[in-house]
Design goal:
Helix content: 40-55%
Bound molecules: FE2/S2 (inorganic) cluster
CATH topology of the largest domain: Glutaredoxin
CATH superfamily of the largest domain: Glutaredoxin
Radius of gyration: 18 Å
Order of helices and strands: HHHHEHHEEEEH
Number of helices: 7
Mean pLDDT: 95
Structural class: alpha+beta
Strand order of the largest sheet: 2-3-1-4-5
Number of strands: 5
Strand content: 5-15%
Shape: elongated
Length: about 160
C-alpha cells in the first residue's frame, strides 16, 4: 500500500536529508501522513520507521505521546471544542453536549454516519470569543448550543 501520494513522497525525499539525524524527521513525516489520511495507521508507523532507520516502537511512542495524532480514521469533519477556562466559563460544555446530541455520538467518538468526530481540546488561542470551536481548519467563535446545531446542519448539507 502506498503510504503517501507522489507529491508528499517528494516532500519526504527533500525533508529527510535536512536533518543531521534522520530520526528528527519523525514528527514532520507523521504530520504529512495525518494530513493525507487523517490518521496514522500501523502500516504508516512501520513505513516511517523503515524510512528513518528506526524501530516501529520508536515511531509508535511519538504517535501515542502527542494527542494531535489520531490512530484510527475519523469522520469527514473533525470538530474540536475548546474546554479551557474562558471557553469552559462561556458554556463550552453545553456546546459540546449540543454537538453530541446533533451528531448522535459521544466525545472522542465518530458519528455513525461518519459525518464528524468530536473531541475536547485545549485553548485555540482566541479566548475572548468563547466558546471557540474548530471544524477542520475553520475557527468558529461564540458557538452556543444553537450554533453547534447549525454547524452540524451545515456539515450535513455540505455547506460548511
Ligand atoms: S480558552 Fe478557549 S480559545 Fe482560549
Amino acid at each position: 500500500m502506498a503510504i503517501l501520494n507522489d507529491e508528499n513522497l517528494a516532500k519526504v525525499d527533500k525533508l529527510v536529508p535536512k536533518y543531521p539525524e534522520k530520526r528528527s524527521a519523525t514528527l514532520p513525516l507523521l504530520h504529512l501522513i495525518q494530513e493525507e489520511h487523517g490518521y496514522i495507521s500501523n502500516e504508516a508507523v512501520e513505513w516511517v520507521a523503515e524510512r528513518l532507520d528506526l524501530s516501529p516502537i520508536n515511531v509508535y511512542e511519538v504517535v501515542t505521546f502527542y494527542p494531535m495524532f489520531k490512530q484510527k480514521p475519523g469522520g469527514k469533519y473533525a470538530v474540536k471544542v475548546c474546554r479551557t477556562l474562558s471557553c469552559a466559563l462561556g458554556g463550552a460544555y453545553k456546546t459540546c453536549k449540543a454537538f453530541e446530541e446533533a451528531l448522535g455520538c459521544g466525545l472522542d467518538q465518530t458519528s455513525e454516519d461518519k459525518l464528524a468526530s468530536l473531541e475536547f481540546v485545549e485553548c485555540h488561542a482566541n479566548c475572548g470569543r468563547a466558546p471557540v470551536v474548530m471544524v477542520d481548519e475553520q475557527m468558529f467563535e461564540g458557538v452556543d448550543e444553537n450554533g453547534a446545531r447549525k454547524l452540524v446542519e451545515k456539515m450535513r448539507e455540505g455547506t460548511l
